[in-house]
Amino acid sequence: MKGKSFIVVALLFSTFFFFLESYASAYTVQTGTVITNTSLNVRENPSNDAPVIGQLQSGAKIEYVDVGYDWVRITYNGKAGYLNSLFIKENRPTSQATSHQATSHQATSHQATAVSGVNVGKVTAKNGLIVRTQASTDSAMLGKIDYGSKVEYRISTGGWGQITYNGQRAFIDTSYLSGSTSNENISGATSNENKSVDQQAAVTETISRVVIDPGHGGRDPGARGNGLIEKNITLLFAKQIKKSLQENGIEVYLTRSSDEYVYLQERANIADSFQADLFLSIHANGHENSLIRGMEIHSFAPNNIALKLENQFRDLPNAVYRGHYESNFYVLRNTSTPSLLIELGYVSNQADAALLQSQQFQIQVGEAVRRALQS
Q: Using an 8 Å Cβ cutoff, are 269 and 253 in contact?
């Protein structure tokens, strides 16, 4: 009897490990770049509460596997580490895994696809190709791309190409590239990542329909600090902003109205299907340094509403405004709707945490957004 029990247990374990091996092998190894304004924590497990085992700087190139729930796995100092996928810009995957692509919504939402209209060239400048903030030799230099490196870019004007450099929009002189080829026909898959700057900036003069996206939710809590959980804060502020806008005749739709998990691509799709004039994603920050505080505005490209909104945020009492950043966040680049992402403050900072819990501040932010949209 004991022998039979042992055989059954052995078979169960064998089946279990075979399942794990098959499941793991279905993932696609991808390459990407870290995009963050500071540094990105590498965690021991795929959770914002997991111990930090290291950090990667913005612009770091990585190979990773998407494990779902907005987390990716990398090898860090010889062992597994995990990164929040919201801060990873995907490149084309290095291998294919069609079986998993067909069944995993989460993997599909994060997988890189060929971008229509994107060209690839090799840098011929011996001292490196200068990256600039604008399509002009008079503009500020952001850095250099090494000789011989391959560059993906979109055609801009006057012989300039538009690229994403360390998470922000930048420009290069395409006369220093050779062997340029178009990626337009590499894949039949499509992506909104190729939306033009004009599409992003072309917020209509009259805002009548807005999609508000409370960040995180459900199994994804977001940042934690001072007793606050980001997913709860974002929902409170989203509902208050919705109230302020609706009272002034603006039609508003929330991507979530309760503590539920919504995939990133689904959030972006909602904005497009609602035919909104603006997609507004609401978030809160967190940092190991509890002294860091302040509100931020992020956009994928220049946006006239962002300029109006930052003027309003600067005037909010007791709040600190950190600035407007052009960022490559997934929900911003994967909708054709003009979009903004707001960071309300740092839950890790006591002063910001007190503000975030204040109903008065929630009302003030709602009114600030209303004034920006109606000015």
A: no
Which residues is 123 bridged to in the sheet? Answer: 177
Q: Residues 60-83: what's their mean pLDDT?
A: 77
pLDDT at residue 260 is higher than 50: yes
Catalytic residues: 343
Can you read off the two tokens belonging to residue 96?
């294919």
From CA 369, how far away is CA 308, in angstroms rounded?
Answer: 9
Neighbours of 315 (CB within 10 A): 11
Classify residue 126 by its DSSP letter.
Answer: T
Report field, pTM of the whole predicted structure over 0.85: no
Q: Is 222 left (phi over 0), alpha (psi -120 to 50) or beta?
A: left
Burial label, 31 (beta-carbon count in 10 A; 0-12, 13-18, 19+): middle
Would you put residue 294 in left (φ > 0), alpha (ψ -120 to 50) or beta? left
Contact 331, 300 (CB under 8 A): no
Determine the distance from the C-alpha atom of residue 157 to the mean position of all C-alpha atoms in its chain, rounded to a whole number. 27
pLDDT digits (tens, 9 = 90+) for 148-183: 787 877 777 777 888 877 657 788 888 788 765 443
